[in-house]
């Protein structure tokens, strides 16, 4: 997802403690890690499959490993990072469930953000137009979208429950620029940000 | 990639009066290194990039000799405005010991016998090559290397530099290389050596005195190695099943296919420019290369970039990823990218657009951080 001003980055940055180690899955142009390294003095590394994005991370001096997340993360040892971040990438994964379980294996905590497919405008598109929803944040046509696994905020909560994943914190965003209260987030939030832990 | 050439260059020599202690416990003394430099060393002496060549390369990485219309082997990468920008960086390319391109090697005079070393030349390792280069860098009064970079055997040197002199190396770019030679890698080298050793003109390595060379053996070694530098795809593209004369010739010794003709040409061309003993020593040095244990223990400030090419099966992406994972164990700063290319292992010498952009981006980032 290519959006110039990503307020969710700042929110994710606020969730991460200074000096921690961070693995950013699908790190894009490296902007989040750049913020984290500058402001939080983290030890960060990104994984990104897109060649041109890898270049942008390199330009920023961010360590980045070109790889496809669907190829697995088995070479990363258990609990080797304080945080593993997956920001707005979940919906483009072939096996999102496996990636999340790997995140919780590799990281002490996982942070996942994703576009809420339960948002009322998207519901409206299907319900009244009978067409696959498009929006500022989901600009693709059905046939060329990289996004193949959509979920709503309720779906995600259910997934966590079924997989014994503890939701430590959840934040909902409207239009990338406003945190909204927890009033019917499955209808009004455009983005959900979840901090996860393995349930003990 | 456009940009100007560094123009006419000269090959310099550095001769050490101190003996070089080798991993084998033997000593090499005296020893010389051939090297070239491009660009200008700045006042702070912090703009140095040290470039390493591969098995059959030389210190002539860029520019032209007055007598030769062919430029250096990385001409498209090194020069004003190019990825290794001589307007900004002072670039040193050092020949390896054991080579036949000016540094002390089996062709050099053995001070004990006043004859060429031939097989009395000590067996060397990549670490020895790097130790010799360190003497050159000391001689040039350079304390810090902004970047060390090389492909294939050159990549092994870039890795070895970061291991041997971590405090000197700010960044290390390792292209199409490996942390250790695999049995398959060693096996290919072995066939090359057997071909040379089996040539009856080899004369136990003393062919130089007899004004001969084991041309057949060396050509076979090169023909075989050359295949490992290509990919199935690039050979299909280049030759297909194209016939030299348009027809099958029905003679066992005939050259029917273009690919045969090409390989023979490559073999013969190589014999003209390379020394068989050097080939034996350098491939041996490669075979001994295995830094996996040292990498596992390395905790360094050096920033690494690993580059592999999709169709390289000699030093594959898996081998680059092994280095990445070893470096990651101690949370070292390491980046990795795999470049799409159908040109096999040779991609590092041929792919300039994408590879060049990656190098520029990485160097830019190192400057910033």
- The number of helical elements of chain B comes to 11
The order of strands across the largest sheet of chain A is 3-2-1-4-5-8-6-7
How many domains make up the 3D coordinates of chain A?
1
What percent of residues of chain A adopt helix (DSSP H or I)?
Answer: 25-40%
Biggest beta sheet attributes of chain A: 8 strands, mixed
Order of helices and strands of chain B: EEEEEEEEEEHEHEHHHHHHEHEHH
Q: By helix and strand content of chain B, what is the structural category? A: alpha/beta
| Broad shape of chain B | globular
* Number of beta-strand segments of chain A: 8
Mean pLDDT over the full residue set of chain B: 97
Helical segment tally of chain A? 7
What spatial order of strands do you see in the largest sheet of chain B?
A: 1-4-8-5-11-12-13-14
Summarize the structure.
Chain A is an alpha/beta fold and 200 residues long.
Task: Provide the fold topology.
The complex is a heterodimer of chains A (200) and B (369).
Chain A: H1 7-15, E1 21-25, H2 31-40, E2 43-48, H3 51-59, E3 64-66, E4 81-87, H4 96-106, E5 107-115, H5 120-129, H6 153-162, E6 165-174, E7 178-180, H7 185-188, E8 191-198
Parallel strand pairs in A: 1-2, 1-4, 2-3, 4-5
Antiparallel strand pairs in A: 5-8, 6-7, 6-8
Chain B: E1 12-16, E2 20-21, E3 27-28, E4 31-38, E5 48-52, E6 78-79, E7 84-85, E8 90-94, E9 109-110, E10 115-116, H1 126-139, E11 147-151, H2 153-164, E12 171-175, H3 183-198, H4 215-229, H5 232-239, H6 258-273, H7 276-287, H8 292-297, E13 303-309, H9 317-329, E14 334-339, H10 347-350, H11 353-368
Parallel strand pairs in B: 5-8, 5-11, 6-7, 11-12, 12-13, 13-14
Antiparallel strand pairs in B: 1-4, 2-3, 4-8, 9-10
Helix pairs in contact in B: 1-2, 3-4, 3-7, 4-6
What report would you give on this structure?
- The complex is a heterodimer of chains A (200) and B (369).
- Chain A is of the alpha/beta class and 200 residues long.
- Chain A has one domain (7-198): Rossmann fold (3-Layer(aba) Sandwich), CATH 3.40.50.
- Chain A has helices spanning 7-15, 31-40, 51-59, 96-106, 120-129, 153-162, 185-188, and strands spanning 21-25, 43-48, 64-66, 81-87, 107-115, 165-174, 178-180, 191-198.
- An eight-stranded mixed sheet of chain A has the order 3-2-1-4-5-8-6-7, sandwiched between helices.
- In chain A, helix 1 (7-15) packs across helix 2.
- Chain A is globular, with a radius of gyration of 16 Å.
- Chain B is an alpha/beta fold and 369 residues long.
- Chain B has two domains: 12-180 and 290-368, Rossmann fold; 185-284, Rna Polymerase Sigma Factor, Chain: A, CATH 1.10.1740.
- Chain B has eleven helices and 14 strands.
- An eight-stranded mixed sheet of chain B has the order 1-4-8-5-11-12-13-14, with helices on both faces. In chain B, strands 2-3 form a two-stranded antiparallel sheet.
- Chain B is globular, with a radius of gyration of 20 Å.
- Chains A and B meet through helix 3 and strand 3 of A and helix 9, strand 14 and helix 11 of B.
């Amino acid at each position: 997802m290519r959006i110039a001003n990503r307020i969710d980055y700042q929110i994710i940055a606020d969730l991460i403690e200074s000096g921690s180690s961070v693995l950013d899955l699908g790190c894009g142009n490296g902007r989040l890690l750049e913020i984290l390294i500058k402001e939080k003095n983290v030890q960060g590394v990104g994984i990104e499959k897109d060649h041109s994005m890898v270049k942008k991370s390199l330009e920023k001096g961010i360590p980045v490993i070109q790889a496809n997340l669907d190829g697995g993360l088995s070479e990363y040892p258990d609990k080797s990072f304080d945080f593993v971040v997956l920001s707005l990438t979940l919906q483009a994964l072939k096996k999102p469930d496996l990636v999340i379980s790997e995140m919780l294996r590799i990281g002490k905590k996982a942070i996942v953000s994703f576009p809420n497919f339960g948002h009322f405008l998207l519901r409206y598109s299907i319900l009244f137009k009978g067409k696959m929803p498009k929006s500022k944040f989901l600009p693709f046509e059905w046939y060329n979208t990289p996004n193949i696994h959509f979920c709503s905020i309720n779906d995600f909560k259910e997934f966590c429950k079924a997989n014994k994943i503890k939701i430590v914190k959840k934040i909902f965003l409207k239009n990338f620029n406003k945190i909204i209260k927890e009033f019917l987030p499955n209808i009004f939030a455009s983005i959900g940000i979840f901090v996860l832990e393995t349930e003990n | 990639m456009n940009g100007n050439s560094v123009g006419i260059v000269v090959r310099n020599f550095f001769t050490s009066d101190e003996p070089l202690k080798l991993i084998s416990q033997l000593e090499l003394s005296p020893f010389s290194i051939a090297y070239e430099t491009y660009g200008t060393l700045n006042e702070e002496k912090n703009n140095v990039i040290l470039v390493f060549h591969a098995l059959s390369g030389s210190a002539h990485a860029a520019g032209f000799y007055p007598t030769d219309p062919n430029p250096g082997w990385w001409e498209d990468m090194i020069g004003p405005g190019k990825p290794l920008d001589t307007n900004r960086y002072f670039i040193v390319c050092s020949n390896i010991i054991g080579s036949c391109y000016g540094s002390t090697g089996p062709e050099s005079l053995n001070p004990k016998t006043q004859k060429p070393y031939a097989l009395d030349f000590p067996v060397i390792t990549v670490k020895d090559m790097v130790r010799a280069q360190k003497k050159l860098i000391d001689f040039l009064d350079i304390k810090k290397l902004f970047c060390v970079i090389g492909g294939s055997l050159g990549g092994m040197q870039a890795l070895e530099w970061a291991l041997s002199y971590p405090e000197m190396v700010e960044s290390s770019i390792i292209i199409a290389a490996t942390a250790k030679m695999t049995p398959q890698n060693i096996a290919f080298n072995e066939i090359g050596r057997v071909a040379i050793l089996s040539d009856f003109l080899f004369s136990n390595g003393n062919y130089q005195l007899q004004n001969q060379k084991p041309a057949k053996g060396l050509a076979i070694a090169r023909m075989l190695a050359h295949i490992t530098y290509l990919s199935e795809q690039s050979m299909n593209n280049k030759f297909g099943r194209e016939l030299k004369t348009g027809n099958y010739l029905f003679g066992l010794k005939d050259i029917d296919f273009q690919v045969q003709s090409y390989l023979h040409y490559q073999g013969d061309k190589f014999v003209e420019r390379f020394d068989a003993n050097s080939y034996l020593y350098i491939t041996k040095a490669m075979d001994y290369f295995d830094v996996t244990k040292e990498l596992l223990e390395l905790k360094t400030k050096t920033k690494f970039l690993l580059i592999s090419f999709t169709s390289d099966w000699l030093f594959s992406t898996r081998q680059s990823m092994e280095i990445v994972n070893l470096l990651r164990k101690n949370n070292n700063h390491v980046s990795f990218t795999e470049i799409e290319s159908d040109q096999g292992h040779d991609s590092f010498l041929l792919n300039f657009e994408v590879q060049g952009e990656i190098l520029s981006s990485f160097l830019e980032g190192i400057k910033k951080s």
